[in-house]
Amino acid sequence: MRLSSQSRFNLFIFIVFGLLMTYAGCGGRDLMGDTKTFFERLFGPKTPRTAYRKTMLKEGWATDLEVEVWDAAYEVAKSTPLMVGLPHREAVSLDSQLTLSAQSFRLRLPAGRTLEINARGSGPLFGELFRFKGGEPNSRPAEYFPEGGGPITYETPWLHGEDLLFVLQIPIGEPVDYELQLTTRPVLLFPVDGKDERAIQSFWGAPRDGGRRKHEGNDIFAPKGTNLLATTDGEITRLNNTGIGGKTVWLYDRERGLRYYYAHLDQQLVRKGQRVQKGEIVGTVGNTGNARTTPPHLHFGIYDNGAIDPFPFLQSADELPAVSPLSLSGPAAAMNVPTRGNHYLRFTPARDGEVIRQLENGEAVTGLAVTGRFYRVKTERGEVGYVNFD
């Protein structure tokens, strides 16, 4: 039987939908990301970098050999990242050498933090953020700089944190100066109006009842009656008044699958089943329950299958490190290791960072970037790492 055009179209949509559901599987929170990747795989370039590469070849703006060397630099960088902590700030100056066009950084993102990556420069930049699977970076980026530039933001779904890989590349034949900035901010709004983590006076893990148990939350001190805020959009699932927690409110965060516990309230200003938005008032600070002999405060807890340390979820946004006092003489600057002292090439810009090797006194290196008191250099052997010449 011959199908009509409309029937063939409907069949196509049905097949695509079925493939999409199979591909997405039971990913839950990752469904939208998986959906994006599915359609990108089906219908075209995945990132501005791949679109740029395709245009380079199609329009003849670069030779096949130049694109091949540019691709190789990207793959080498992706497989040999340096390690950086958060927050991180690095000033980079590169010339048009294709072999120096890409850099990569491995980092650890804690749970409860949103990563933000910015690279402000004199020209276009291609930035791609990869998750790991089985110890190796995924073939496709989880996030990337949008066309025209702009930050990457990413929140890990894992409560134990996550290792990530960020790869940055400049266009073919275009020298670029840029500053790379990697910072984090809390995923939650601070729950006590007008306060921040400086108001926390009792932390996760502090002993309780003579050491028989440990504190499963943060105690945030504020005057009685201070407004308590919904840390995110969610649903009020429980209101209690008990001898331990006093007046309590439970807020369920469907997006993250977490429950937030507000205890010792003076007033509960929500009802069970109520949907609240981030920043909405849910109650006021008090000292009910077993806090009746202490100054007013909020006991704030986070629960999944068990209690989780709330502090990373609440700590203020990172402050960027100071601008490095060091500088390079120019793009991909020629440098020499000092003739005196011991100088070590390291995987990370820290004096106790893992050593790649000891550099020879007077050895020639190429300066690529500066961060803090460290240069990022490439040796004539092809090694890339951080070195301090103090």
From TrEMBL:
Domain M23ase beta-sheet core: start-end pairs: 214-308
One Pfam family in the UniProt entry: Peptidase_M23
InterPro entries attached to this UniProt entry: Cell_wall_metabolism_enzyme (IPR050570), Dup_hybrid_motif (IPR011055), M23ase_b-sheet_dom (IPR016047), SH3-like_bac-type (IPR003646)
Domain SH3b: 344-387
One annotated GO molecular function: metalloendopeptidase activity
Listed SUPFAM superfamilies: Duplicated hybrid motif
Xref: Gene3D superfamilies: Glucose Permease (Domain IIA), SH3 Domains
Protein name in UniProt: M23 family metallopeptidase
